[in-house]
Amino acid sequence: MVFAITSRCTSDKERREFLLDRYVFFIIIGFLSGSILYSWLLPKIFCHVDVTKYSRDHNPGTANAMKYAGVGMGSVCLLCDVGKGFVPVFVAAQQLERTGVLFSLLIAAPVAGHAFSPWKKGKGGKAIATAFGVLLALLPYSYVVLILAASYLFFSLVLVINPHRLRTIVSFFVLCAAAYLLKINIFIVYACLLISGIVIIKNLTPEENEAKQWRLLGRKLF
Question: Which residue spans traverse the membrane (predicted)?
């Protein structure tokens, strides 16, 4: 009897250690995946364009790839930036329990990798496309990506907020508030808070001569 209990305890301990190792593995893989700045790397390799030097905000992101390397290359960069967030989280979600703080960190890891890429000395992108990718990977378990998409559409078409960085900040605030109020899995809420915190920090710095404007159905509010 004592042997059976001891054996079970050992087995449970080994299982917990195995799961911990798996979570840590996927967190590292997710961060490294996110750290590859496709929107900077691909235009530089194939178009000989460094989007960080051409753009005013020096952001190695999809929007600048579209603007300075063309729609075709920009579209490829968009798919890569979304995919590098989607793939590691999707694979992990199929193999691990979708609960716990470690799962929250796992979801946020690719976003952190993109925003603070070690290959650019911590000066990564704004991580918007990658944020969509990691949240998209949670379907159909969680539909938070639809909340974020709806927020962007609302603040782009109905209550239009300019500039884009301010629209992004408001949209990610709405994501966190909605995720909490809708009583979504608390660990998904934690992930949303982490992701939003990273994205908002990366979007806080205003551009030079930036004009702020809010319009409701075409009518200027302020």
Answer: 23-41, 68-93, 100-119, 131-160, 172-201
